[in-house]
Amino acid sequence: MQNFITPEWLALAALCAATAAAAVWWLSPAPTASGMERELLSGDTNTEAVFLFDDTRLIGWSSGAGKLIGSKADKFNWSALRDQLARSYPGLPQSPAMLKDLGPLTLSGTAAAESDEAHCEWIDGITRVQLRRRNAVGKDSADGQELTTLRAAVHQAPYPVWLQSDDGQVTWTNLAYDDLSLKLRGRNADLGEPMFDNLEEPMTSGRAERIPLQQPETGKKLWYNLSATETEAGWLCRAVDVNAVVDAEIAQRNFVQTLAKTFAQLSIGLAIFDRNRQLVLFNPVLIDLTALPANFLSSRPNLLSFFDRLRDQRMMPEPKNYSSWRHQMAELVEAASEGRYQETWTLPSGSVYSVSGRPHPDGAVAFLFEDITAEITLTRQFRSEIEMGQSVLDQMDEAVAVFSNDGTLTVSNSAYHAMWRMDPDASFAKVAISDTAKVWQDMCDPTPAWGDVQEFVAGRENRDPWWAEVRLRDGTELSCKVTPVPNGSTMVSFRPLAPTIMPEAQKKFALPSA
Question: What is the pLDDT of residue 399?
């Protein structure tokens, strides 16, 4: 047989073989793709993106996934895929291993997603992620839209939400959880390890519990209200940021402490009851004034218990009728709430307290206790001295009237009232020197002495004592003596004319000879 194989044919065959080998290598999905991997990559690769992972390492991908991977296939892993797809397909697991326990997972894409959904499954140790159209699995559009809305609502909620298994592993998280984890633990943290490691209280109580997270750099605590609900897939946990509430509580507590330190310097006892009528604030002076034990006041007694204890300690006036005690307390609280309560308590011990009630914001009521025993004692003593001095003046035969530096009649005795037929105490109006001088003029013969008396009372200089002779219209002759007294006051006294008048007083006016 003639040999038709020439060197040219051999060269052509070698070139074809090399071209075919290059085409096979170029079209291969991944450098290490096995037959099973090629089968898993099957599908409409022109429009769908398929990724294959061995644990978190990318081992194969379709041509449709190339645009997501770009030129960094050697650095593209599960975390990189999740970073790109998490917002478009809410609910993508933290790690591929979770799919082994969860089973196949279909995630509906958001409005910004290029594909309708992402289908994730674990097959014999390989994790397959396929971005595909929804009609490929025959999903109803209305149900799919509702599922998409629900997934997006949970995944993009403004507070962390995650799914935690019974053995304490995190199996699913939303974006807020991821952002918080990235902020506190960095990108290389174990995503399956929970950030909140103590959920016993919310799991047991069934209600939200306040739990802190500590920032590693500053050591500052971040506070969250954590709640956990048991589901078939594990514990669905939610964390609501309450740092603003905690800061407000701290600010309020500091403010109350500042007030307490300020009130501690007051000499007035203070007791503030909140809208529920419980004692919320008191100062140390209250303990001294009421003799109530500090542990009793610190136990936040209600208002009725507080006043009951005062009554038992005999630190308030004894009620006349015990049966109406509660009714009296109700009236007291009502008056204090309106700012009308103001009383002076005279205690069995002899002490005197001024007690007032004032309304405070948000329905609170404040009671102020002030010890006015010294003031009352001084006032009573002063009043007693005045009464004694008035009694002494009333026993004198000489008519006496005292005018203040502004010309107002301040003191007069009974003899003066009888002589001039006037009682200044019977009038609420002030009696001036001009009014008094008019009475003198009307009841006496004409004399220039009254003008000089008015000038002397109003003057500040040349205040030497002097006297004058005056005559009543009934013929009675009187001596009128004008004497300066302390504080710019003036005493004017009258008595029947005697042969000898006090020599230390200068005679200014005399009666005409008969």
Answer: 93
> What is the token pair recorded at 477?
């002759």
Half-sphere exposure of 310 (CA within 13 A, CB side): 26
The amino acid present at 85, given as its one-letter code, is L
- Cα–Cα dist 224/213, whole Å: 8
Distance CA 177, CA 185 (A): 11
Cα separation of the two ends of the chain: 197
Residue 199 phi, psi dihedral angles, 5° rounding: -110, 15
Catalogue the long-range contacts made by 81-87 (C-beta closer than 8 Å, 24 or more residues apart): 81/51, 81/53, 81/129, 85/118, 85/131, 86/155, 86/175, 86/178, 87/112, 87/156, 87/175
Residue-wise pLDDT tens digits, 48-79: 788 899 888 888 888 888 878 877 778 888 88
Which CATH number does 261-371 carry?
Answer: 3.30.450.20
Q: What confidence category does residue 144 fall into, taking pLDDT thresholds of 50, 70 and 90? A: low
Domain 158-241 CATH superfamily: PAS domain (3.30.450.20)
Using alpha carbons, select from 482, 462, 461 the residue that is nearest to residue 470: 482
More confident residue, 76 or 264: 76
- H or E segment to which residue 462 belongs: none
Name the pTM for this structure: 0.45
Which parts of 300-410 fold into alpha helices (H)?
Answer: 303-312, 325-337, 373-394
In order, the DSSP letters of 93-111 are: -SSTTHHHHH--EEEE--T
Domain with CATH 3.30.450.20 in the chain: 158-241, 261-371, 386-509
Lowest-pLDDT range, 72-86, 367-381, 432-446? 72-86
Judged by DSSP in three states, 29 sits in coil
Q: What is the CATH number of domain 386-509?
A: 3.30.450.20
158 burial level (CB within 10 Å; 0-12, 13-18, 19+): exposed
Task: Identify the DSSP state of 77.
Answer: B
The answer to whether residues 130 and 53 touch, using CB atoms and an 8 Å cutoff, is no
* Amino acid making up residue 137: V
Fold of 28-156: Beta-Lactamase (3.30.450)
Mean pLDDT of the chain: 80
Q: What is the DSSP string of 410-434?
A: EEE-HHHHHHHT--GGG-SSPPBHH
Residue 408's pLDDT is 93
